[in-house]
Fold this protein.
Amino acid sequence: MCYDQLRSLSEDEITPWRTTRSPDENAAVVEDLRDRLAETQARLERARAREAELSRRLQEMKRFVSVMEILEIYLKRRYQEQQQHVRVELESPLRKPSYLAELSLIADLGVLIG
């Protein structure tokens, strides 16, 4: 709540109710209190709407972060699988890497044709 928006009560407004006031003065005080209550209710309504919007946006951000975390885990796993695949291809003395086998086959075909 913004306290700077609250106005302080004047000496007249603090006067005990036992003081006799004219009906016009009473009506003016009641009207002033109604206006202030309406302003307070309007501020409260705006604050609740703002809170609801911020809560909605927070939930949306949380969903986005969850999706990003899932993608991060998936991409890390795929990267590790690719690294392992490359490592196996390079470390295997009996197997040529698949791209080298293809190049060799192309070279052999070139010799046969040429």
